[in-house]
């Protein structure tokens, strides 16, 4: 669940754990989450309003960021929605 101005809240249907992700060095890079999608490996792609595209690798519990002006990045840091591309196994 994305929150406007707070964090990302994640809860799995398979356990009772609720996790909160706030902006920080090993978490989200921006507080306003507007969209998210899960890929085949169970990783979460997170669109933010100003922080570009965030990628949470759930296996390693690490985050990566794709910001405007960097390689393989969106053309804006304002991500309102995500669409999963099964051919590339990533979000576009």
Compile the SSE list and pairings.
Layout: E1 8-11, E2 18-21, E3 33-38, E4 44-48, E5 53-57, E6 62-66, E7 84-85, E8 90-91
Antiparallel strand pairs: 1-2, 3-4, 4-5, 5-6, 7-8
Topology as a string of helices (H) and strands (E): EEEEEEEE
- Sheet-strand content, in percent, reads 35-45%
Q: Largest sheet at a glance?
A: 4 strands, antiparallel
Using only CA atoms, what is the Rg? Answer: 12 Å
- Per DSSP E runs of 2 or more residues, the count of β-strands stands at 8
The overall pLDDT average reads 82
From the structure provided, what is the oligomeric state, counting identical versus distinct chains? single chain
Describe the structure.
By secondary structure, this protein is mainly β. The protein has one domain (8-80). 0% of the residues lie in helices and 36% in strands. The protein has strands at residues 8-11, 18-21, 33-38, 44-48, 53-57, 62-66, 84-85, 90-91. The strands form 3 sheets. Strands 3-4-5-6 form a 4-stranded antiparallel sheet, with no helix packed on it. It has a two-stranded antiparallel sheet with strand order 1-2. Strand 5 and strand 6 form a beta hairpin. 20% of the residues are buried.
């Amino acid at each position: 669940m994305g929150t406007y101005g707070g964090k990302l809240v994640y809860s799995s249907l398979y356990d009772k754990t609720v996790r909160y992700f706030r902006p920080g060095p090993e978490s989200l890079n921006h507080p306003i989450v507007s969209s998210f999608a899960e890929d085949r490996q169970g990783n979460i792609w997170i669109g933010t309003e100003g922080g570009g595209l965030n990628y949470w690798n759930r296996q390693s519990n690490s985050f990566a960021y794709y910001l405007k002006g960097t390689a393989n990045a969106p053309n804006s840091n304002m991500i309102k929605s995500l669409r999963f591309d099964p051919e590339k196994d990533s979000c576009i």
